[in-house]
Amino acid sequence: MNCSDIKLMLIEDHKLIRVGIKTLFDETDGYQVVCEAECGKEALNKIENSDIDVILLDLGLPDISGTKLIKEILEINPNIKIIVLSSRNNEEEITKCFSLGIYAYVIKDINTEMLLYIVKSVNDGAMWFDPKIVQHLRNSNDSVLVQKKTSRANFRNTHSNLTEREYEVLKLVVEGKSNNDIAKQLCISEHTAKAHVCNIIQKLLVDDRTQAAVKAIKEGIV
Asked: What is the topology classification, in CATH, of domain 152-218?
């Protein structure tokens, strides 16, 4: 294992899913699964003795609720970044997870390339919201996202250096679209789509497309 690899823990009670995720990361440069657990108790025991950067956590464990486990993990090591990887899309549960301090909530039908990207982004300090849960977060009343509740016009006034096309691209970035998807939807080349995304990142003073999406959500463009 390279010392610069992102060190992962998988907490998932379904062995087939766990093995598939482990294989994905072990076969990709820059990632290493250092430990696994199939229940909450096992996870807590291993966390105390392992060097972990990011945890991929399934909420539906047999012995402890996912939200309780998140709380206990972060009490042991508040520096661990937690990504919930779940098939559940419950608004109250999503809100609770973010209020406890997770960095990302990912629905399990995510493609492998995007999952690799999310883990790297989270390890670098970004947050990530699955497009399927954005509306839940916007509807939340307990400030998981501190939103300004601005209109699109007000957002444009605040960020007047963005072009009309860049606003279109930004909305698609928030929806989780890849550069290829953006190119197809807007009938432009993938190279042009990538250039627009790079410009947006620079103009919004963020580090990557994930942070650009988060800023857009917070400031009310979606």
From this structure: Arc Repressor Mutant, subunit A (1.10.10)
User: Torsions phi, psi of 84, nearest 5?
Assistant: -80, 125
Is the pTM higher than 0.85?
no
The domain locations on the chain are 6-139, 152-218
For residue 22, name the pLDDT band (cuts at 50, 70, 90): very high
Which class is 6-139 in CATH? alpha beta
